[in-house]
Amino acid sequence: xxxxxxxxxxxxxxxxxxxxxxxxxxxxxxxxxxxxxxxxxxxxxxxxxxxxxxxxxxxxxxxxxxxxxxxxxxxxxxxxxxxxxxxxxxxxxxxxxxxxx
Length: 101
Known about the structure:
With about 100 residues, this protein is an all-alpha fold. It has a single domain, classed as Methane Monooxygenase Hydroxylase, Chain G, domain 1 (Up-down Bundle). Helices cover about 80% and strands about 0% of the residues. The radius of gyration is 19 Å and the shape is elongated.
């Protein structure tokens, strides 16, 4: 369902309306959390591709923390989050090794 699309509720029961409201609120929270994680990962990737080891180093810990938070909230599956973290860490280690060498 696209963002901001109203859900149609056939039954006009109090509990059904409440569940529909809760569903929309939860979807908004999940969308915000997913967006936050994706944005941090994009910033980290741009710092890595630019070869800026200091900026990537400053972004590494908050990005990994955001991924962990997304895993705990059920926004990302555990294996997916761990794969993202592993790839970001490996890329960061590569540019920091290139900087010291």
